Amino acid sequence: MFTQIKTAYIRSQNTLLQDAIGAASIVLILLVALHLPSLHLPILP
Length: 45
What we know:
By secondary structure, the protein is an all-alpha fold.
């Protein structure tokens, strides 16, 4: 099992940074979307 994990890690090493950036951006978008209702922005006439 450890060998399979090690092999998968070696194969995907090129895209790990891109995947981490993508995951962080999804979390950031989710947090911003969840906090939007608490901003109480005034509605313009």
